[in-house]
Design brief:
This protein is an alpha/beta fold. The chain folds into 2 domains: about 160 residues, no CATH class; about 150 residues, Rossmann fold (3-Layer(aba) Sandwich), CATH 3.40.50.720. Helix content is about 35%, strand content about 25%. The protein contains 8 helices and 14 strands. The protein has a 5-stranded antiparallel beta sheet. A 5-stranded parallel beta sheet has the order 12-11-10-13-14, with helices on both faces. A hairpin with a 5-residue loop joins β2 and β3.
């Protein structure tokens, strides 16, 4: 769950109070790591996950009981052994922080939501039974979605860790991919030069832009942006690929098409002066696996998996590099 505090704020405005369950610490194997959380609402709906199974079922029941009890503590910890106690095969132990958040804290939650919108940040919180988790923003840098619990202090990383993606083309596959990426950790800039190319409504993680010169939009994309070209025009696809491959800031550049299209593009890109090593990185055809369906939704699903794999590999490589530094 990326926008934790926005979710909590919306819940307060709709229901007046919410419960939040966070995996504060774990030992051994568990379905999710420390930092995974759920926000549970009084109407029994929820957002997020701490891994499913019996652990999540019990945690949800605890949160719902607390929401129904006006005298419930505002913050408490609950420890679970996943093997003997819950019958889950993971076998590890988790410590949960269960907190009730009332509308009286709306101003504080709104400030955290605004800070979350602005970028990544870290908090340290003290668990006070009759008040809740009292957080302060600190200089420590925890990755978004991470957490640690030591000596009654809960450290948490918040913010948007979505991979930026520049998607060129609003045709059938482009539209299907937008829907496939809607619940995934990507922040998409969707570009097309045609009037009325975009649907009336797009997912919250998408910004749709009509641009007469789509390739020029890459100049404003942040470092680490993934680039995908699937426009209505081969020359436009080529222009996007050439611009992206000429800039080392873009670690993943793909174009929809066949092996024949890739061979033609590779030749043209090399002739245009793009380094051969960089041309070799061009992904075409796009999508994982050996599925041969040409249905837009299937292509979108395979491409979404490919993007997730590439994103995870880059993050793992960066973490390994920082560990050695």
């Amino acid at each position: 769950m990326t926008q934790v505090w926005r979710t909590v704020l919306d819940g307060l405005d709709r229901h007046g109070r919410v419960a939040m369950v966070t995996i504060a610490a774990k030992r051994g194997s568990s379905p999710r790591d420390a930092g995974a959380r759920m926000v549970i609402f009084p109407d029994a709906t929820f957002s997020g996950s701490i891994g499913g199974g019996t652990l999540e079922w019990k945690a949800t029941a605890i949160a719902q009981a607390a929401l129904a009890n006006p005298n419930a503590p505002k913050a408490e910890t609950r420890g679970f052994a996943l093997g003997p106690e819950l019958g889950q095969c993971c076998g590890g132990n988790v410590e949960l922080v269960v907190e009730l958040i009332e509308k009286t804290r709306r101003a504080e939650i709104a400030a955290l939501a605004e800070r979350e919108d602005a970028g990544q940040f870290t908090t340290r919180g003290r668990l006070i039974s009759d008040q809740g988790v009292i957080r302060e923003i600190v200089e420590d840098a925890l990755p978004p979605g991470a957490a640690g619990y030591t000596a009654g202090v809960l450290a948490e990383g918040f913010g948007d860790e979505r991979r930026p993606l520049a998607l060129f083309g609003a045709g059938h596959v482009g539209r299907a991919l937008i829907m496939a990426l809607a619940p995934l950790p990507f922040r998409v800039t969707w570009v097309d030069p045609r009037p009325d190319a975009f649907p009336a409504h797009v997912p919250a993680n998408v910004r749709a832009i009509r641009a007469d010169d789509p390739a020029a939009m890459l100049a404003d994309m942040p470092d680490g942006t993934f680039v995908l070209a699937m426009t209505h025009s081969h020359p436009l696809d080529l222009a996007v690929c050439a611009t992206a491959l000429a800039d080392p800031r873009f670690p993943h550049v793909g174009v929809i098409g066949s092996k024949t299209k890739r061979a033609r593009f590779a030749h043209q890109l090399a002739d245009a002066g793009i380094a051969r090593a960089r041309v070799a990185e061009l992904v075409c055809p796009i999508g994982v696996g050996a599925i041969h369906s040409k249905l837009p939704a299937v292509i979108a699903a395979m491409t979404a998996v490919e993007l997730l794999e590439r994103d995870e590999a880059l993050k793992a490589g960066m973490a390994e590099h920082e560990a050695r530094a």
